[in-house]
Amino acid sequence: MSVNGQVAVLTGAASGIGAALTLALAARGADLALIDRDAEGLARIAAEARLFGAKISTHILDLTDAAAIAALPARIAADHPPPALLINNAGVALVGSFEQMDEAEFEWLMDVNFRAAVRLTRVFLPTLRHPGPSRIVFLSSVFGLVGPPFQSAYAASKFAIRGFGESLRHELAGTEIGVTIVHPGGIRTNIARNARLAARMNPEDAAIGVKAFESSLVTPPETAARVILDGIERGSPRLLIGADALAIDSLARLMPVRAWSLIQRRLDALSPRSSTRRSANQG
Question: What local confidence, expressed as pLDDT, does residue 214 receive?
Fold first, then answer.
């Protein structure tokens, strides 16, 4: 499908990959219904997208609010024809071990990263059945391919998105509705910096972990947006973004049990602390 002349519904539009997707979609001739809880960021990116001539509606929404999601199709229908594209991009992060998390924190993350995408798919699926091709896109992660330590909630949500999307794709086979699941690697966004800290995690340990994780975020969000839109227009069922995602996918396929230990060994070798130790030993 071509996105030109289509209406796209996009969550998490105010920053990161979502903001890059907003501008890339507008540049390709799409109109947009943008969803985010950040009113200021949403207004800013909408203003930029309108410079491409796109018709934009903005919807300030907390994705944990099931009733607000249920009302969203009618709100969007007041401004746009039926959408042909639903991109479930919004996501949050939670730093800490499973034992350091409260149940409410775990459920909050699952509400935003997984249940919101399920609810949005449920309410928009009838409108996506109009004549002509349409597509549902789910942003999973490389952590939907491997489960690292201290990311139990995040990995659970991204594995869940992957499983839901794959099953839905098979159910919709033979229709004009396609499903694309995206597994980004380290994308240069603020998701780590904005991550919520688990209730019982030491803030100093968290700061060290976030700083180390941020060093692995190398792919620009604009690159991710281009790969995603190219994949949508090709009808790709699965997308890996970044050399790190390709490597992790290969390891997960070849060594599903040992993959993370090998990845961790590589991360340790690249860490500043490891470099300091090597220099001291050499001296």
Answer: 60
- What is the DSSP annotation of 222-250? HHHHHHHHHHHHHT-SEEEESHHHHHHHH
Residue 128 has, within 13 A of its CA and on its CB side, a CA count of: 23
Enzyme catalytic residues: 154
134 within 8 A of 177, measured Cβ to Cβ: yes
Cβ neighbours of 176 (radius 10 Å) = 15
User: What are the beta bridge partners of residue 85?
Assistant: 8, 135
Q: What DSSP element (H or E) covers 40?
A: helix 39-50
Strand partners, 196: 94
Q: Which residues of the chain have pLDDT under 50?
A: 270, 272-283
Residue 214 CB contacts under 8 Å (≥ 6 apart), including other chains: 192, 193
Residue 125 Cα distances to 33, 66, 85, 162, angstroms: 16, 16, 10, 18
Classify the phi-psi angles of 174: left when phi > 0, otherwise alpha if psi is within -120 to 50, otherwise beta.
left
d(CA 19, CA 149): 29
Pairing of strands 238-241, 31-36: unpaired
Q: What's the one-letter identity of residue 249?
A: D
In this predicted structure, what is the pLDDT of residue 257? Answer: 83
End-to-end distance of the chain based on CA atoms, in angstroms? 59
3-class state of residue 113 by DSSP? helix
Q: Specify the pLDDT at position 252.
A: 87
Cα pseudo-dihedral 40, 43, 49, 50, rounded to 10: -160
Query: Residue 26: enclosing H or E segment and its boundaries?
Result: helix 16-27
